[in-house]
Amino acid sequence: QVQLVESGGGLVQPGGSLRLSCAASGSIFSIYAMDWYRQAPGKQRELVAAITSGSVTNYAEAVKGRFTISRDNAKNTVYLQMNSLKPEDTAVYYCHADVLLSIVPRRRNDYWGQGTQVTVSS
Predict the structure, then answer these.
(1) Residue 87 three-state SS
(2) DSSP state of 62
(3) R_g of the chain, CA atoms, integer Å
């Protein structure tokens, strides 16, 4: 029904930047919050940043001041601009969306992307 496709991951040196994108497609009426999570090897998945449909944002302490989340509601796309990257930012980054599928009947579900690898290393 709904697919989330991420792009923009890769290998970058410490201090570098990357921009992740996540485009949602399918039977979407509207999207509530869109989020980025990450999971490093041997660790639990953690929330990195979130943005509501009204563009209210929230960040994990570890990325505040370095990462910026934004969204284009017309394109059902969320972005994560990552600056001043550190080796500890290395992880698989996942996009997540809370989607309203229809209003009559009211159907709502959440979806995950397949993940994109971000590696920060010299």
Answers:
(1) helix
(2) G
(3) 14
Q: What does the pLDDT average to over 98-115?
A: 94
Statement: residue 1 has pLDDT above 90:
no
The 10s digit of each residue's pLDDT in 34-65 is: 999 999 999 999 999 999 999 999 999 999 99
**Mean pLDDT over each residue of the chain, to the nearest integer:** 96
DSSP letter assigned to residue 84:
S
**Residue from 34, 60, 32 nearest 46 by CA:** 60
In angstroms, the CA 35 to CA 21 distance is 11
CA 3 to chain centre: 14
Give me 111's structure tokens. Answer: 């979806």
Edge-to-edge strand list for the sheet holding 67-72: 2-7, 18-26, 77-82, 67-72
